[in-house]
Amino acid sequence: MADIHAAIDVPGDQLQPTSSAPQGHPAQPQQPAPTSSIASSTGTVSISAETYARLLSLADQAPLECLPLTTHTLARAKILGYNQIGHVRGAPPALLLADLGEDRTDELKRALHDFGMRQLGSD
After folding, report:
1. pTM above 0.85, yes or no
2. Where is the segment annotated Disordered (predicted)?
3. What is the pLDDT of residue 84?
């Protein structure tokens, strides 16, 4: 049985001459691939406020295990009902501090920052 592979277009891919092609005469001239602002690591991507809100809502639904937390902080947060990222982001800072203490609250804030988010109501 033969393997069948589908071609996948990836931004930035370009055709390269094969080693069997004559050195001075490639079968087809190389042309730059079309550019995509999303694929560019140095470019800026702009999205609407509506799209950003939807993405943020999806991220808030992610389980707390997605954050880089110590086992103790994760267990303590889950015992207190913080099961999703949005639970932590939506909690008033004073409540998190009262529930988890200063060290664990700071760890959660750092983890949110590393995840690319910040707590609602924080400076």
Report:
1. no
2. 1-43
3. 95
Picking from 88, 83, 84, the residue whose alpha carbon sits closest to that of residue 109 is: 88
The structure tokens listed for 27 are 């079968």
DSSP state, residue 17? -
The answer to whether the CB of 89 falls within 8 A of the CB of 117 is yes
- Measured CA distances, 16 to 10, 24, 26, 97, 100 (Å): 14, 13, 9, 57, 57
Q: Residue-wise over 34-65: b if at least 16 C-beta within 10 A, else e?
A: eeeeeeeeeeeeeeeeeeeeeeeeebbeeebe
Q: Which residue has the higher pLDDT, 35 or 110?
A: 110
**Are the CB atoms for 88 and 119 separated by under 8 Å?**
yes
- Contact call for residues 83 and 89 (beta carbons, < 8 A): no
Give 31's DSSP letter: -
Determine the length of the chain. Answer: 123
E-strand spans in the chain?
none
